[in-house]
Design a protein that fits this description.
Chain lengths: 277, 331
């Protein structure tokens, strides 16, 4: 039976609350004694947070083992952060990310600052990168807009919600879409999605320059990488059976991305033997 | 950065070589009826301590507001905790892999927060760990079990089985075939004289029997699985609920609630509210705020006592709950 590895460095993690206007955000900082860079992880949306949590934490630990200090956090109204989900907005989540970025930058202004986003988090990361203080941007599976991240989550929920319902009791996914478009709030996997959230999600898109990596690098003059994750990355992305006892192996995914990141930061990317298991 | 807010506090426990992260939901300051019994929440697999849809956060905040210090922790292999655990985590949990670490966590919480004891609230796989831990933990004063599975996941080809299951739920013909299969399984169950199936989690059932028949206050809250009807399981399925209640015996202090409109995760508004209401009704029955010293003395007795006088004569009850209606007691 294999084990999930823990080394001493993984224990150097501080869980804290970060005060933002009207709430406290839950953060975990993976400390490194002499970091070569700092990275802010901007994770996936609402219920996706829970399914992807394990590999997301493993990725943070993987980076910390390689000398990169990591700060990950929960969005306002999600997970361990305070706030009421249905009362918050993409605008607020963007502003919170900027506040965390400023704090992280202030800790050591001379260190490279990396922003890494996953799915909806990649959209927020892209917008923050466009706005300024970052040196490197890594995006995993950004959708064209936030609505395209919400839809599959809703579809998964509809399938679960409609099990063994027949006839008039059975409603297609379009009925749920319509409800929100008519201004109603619906519940999806424990979160109340407001009509505003649904409407706004169409407007949350990557900056045009980031639709193509080469173009992004040319415009921003900073390293930008957009990675479309495949099935091997489940449950970092949606698909398959999120609840499974099959051990997942992320070694290859992590190594490839670390290779690029180390190159972007101009540091030696080799020499650490821990895996992404 | 701070580890404390007005209502919450982050903490770390070092248990059995693992570093466990947790969140403490504090009762309001100067609250007149704060209890010395805490509630510890263990989330289902593979959820971090916030639980499905952050339902565990909602419950912990609600119970703290009622006066019960409430805690949520990530057990090894989940959330922000850090430990060496087998890669086949679910199998590990099912066989009581978290037993000792969860019991150690309870003990540390009792010492650190000066509690008289802890009630463990576990959901699904968290309920399994709760039962195993309670069996070796004197500080555990009660259990709240949400959809506790008393069977191991069936062996076989899950992808094919899942595909067939989903097909059967989408088509009338598939539904018909599914019903026929249920009837065949019913006959098979009858021929086996309604004995527990091979994949029953027997070590878990044994611990349940010890705890329940020993008089530990237990609140069972279930959501009906697909094709179940009230307290009855799906046709052809072994009735674990009846079985474990029978094992618990007449002297047990087991209460059962079936929340009709809830999903297994209890994260939907109806499910999470019904769980909150059930727990808020149940906790003061066994862990009252008034006459705290007497209450503590009552429930500080050994869990496995065989002295009949130690236990109340309260009957196990069935309360079917439709979250949209009032609680309805069943005979």
């Amino acid at each position: 039976m294999g084990t999930q590895h823990t080394c001493r460095k993984e224990l150097e993690e501080d869980a804290d609350y970060f005060a933002v206007p009207g709430a406290h955000l839950y953060t975990v900082r993976h400390r490194v004694e002499e970091p070569v860079a700092r990275v802010l992880l901007s994770g996936p949306f609402a219920s996706e947070r829970h399914y992807s949590y394990d590999p997301w934490v493993r990725w943070a630990r993987y980076l910390a083992q390689r000398g990169v200090e990591v700060l990950r956090y929960d969005y306002r109204g999600v997970g361990e952060s305070e706030g009421i989900f249905e009362e918050t907005s993409f605008q607020q989540w963007s502003e919170d990310l900027q506040l965390l970025a400023s704090w992280l930058k202030s800790r050591s202004p001379n260190l490279p600052l990396v922003l890494h986003g996953l799915e909806t988090g990649a959209l927020l990361a892209g917008l923050a990168f466009h706005a300024g203080v970052w040196d490197v941007l890594l995006l995993w599976s950004p959708p064209a807009n936030a609505n395209l991240a919400l839809r599959p989550t809703l579809l998964r929920w509809v399938v679960a919600d409609q099990l063994f319902k027949f006839g008039e009791d059975r409603r297609p996914a379009s009925a749920y879409f319509q409800k929100m478009e008519e201004g109603s709030t619906i519940e999806v996997e424990g979160y109340r999605w407001s009509a505003k959230l649904w409407r706004d999600s169409h407007e949350v898109t990557l900056p045009l320059a980031m639709e193509d990596e080469d173009r992004a690098r040319a415009i921003y003059h900073r390293p930008v990488r957009v990675v479309r994750l495949g099935k091997e990355a489940i449950p970092l992305i949606k698909g398959g059976h999120a609840v499974t006892n099959e051990p997942r192996n992320f070694t290859s995914l992590f190594a490839k991305n670390w290779g690029w990141l180390a190159g972007a930061l101009a540091i030696d990317g080799g020499g650490v033997g821990e895996s992404g298991n | 950065m701070s580890q404390v807010t007005e209502t919450r506090e982050l903490f770390t426990l070092n248990c059995q070589g693992a570093v466990l992260r947790g969140t403490f939901h504090k009762p309001p300051k100067d609250f007149p009826t704060t209890s010395s019994t805490g509630i510890l929440s263990l989330a289902g697999f593979p959820m971090p301590r916030a639980g499905h849809g952050d339902a565990a956060v909602y419950w912990a905040a609600s119970f703290a507001n009622l006066g019960y210090p409430s805690f949520r922790i990530d057990l090894p292999g989940a959330g922000d905790s850090s430990a060496d655990v087998p890669a086949e985590l679910l199998q590990f949990i099912n066989t009581g892999g978290h037993e000792r670490v969860a019991a150690a966590a309870v003990k540390q919480l009792v010492e650190r927060y000066n509690l008289s004891g802890v009630v463990i609230l576990g959901h699904c796989a968290g309920a399994i760990s709760a039962i195993f831990a309670a069996a070796i933990c004197e500080e555990c004063r009660g259990l709240i079990l949400l959809d506790a599975p008393f069977h191991l996941p069936p062996a076989g080809r899950p992808k094919v089985r899942d595909a067939l299951f989903h097909w059967s739920t989408r088509s009338r013909f598939g539904g018909l075939l599914s019903n026929i299969r249920d009837q065949i399984k019913k006959i098979s169950l009858f021929l086996r004289r309604n004995a527990p199936p091979e994949n029953t989690n027997f070590p878990l059932v044994k611990r349940w029997k010890d705890l329940a028949s020993g008089g530990l206050p237990i609140l069972l809250i279930n959501a009906p699985p697909p094709k179940a009807s009230g307290t009855k399981p799906r046709v052809g399925k072994f009735d674990y609920l009846r079985h474990i209640l029978k094992l618990a015996g007449d002297r047990s202090r087991v209460d059962v609630s079936i929340i009709e409109s809830a999903h297994h995760t209890f994260s939907d508004p109806a499910g999470r509210d019904a769980v909150r209401r059930q727990v808020e009704q149940w906790m003061p029955t066994f862990f009252p705020f008034e006459n705290l010293e007497q209450a503590t003395a009552n429930f500080a007795q050994p869990m496995h006592s065989n002295n009949e006088a130690d236990f109340s004569t309260r009957q196990s009850m069935f309360a079917r709950v439709d979250a949209t209606r009032e609680v309805e007691s069943l005979p």
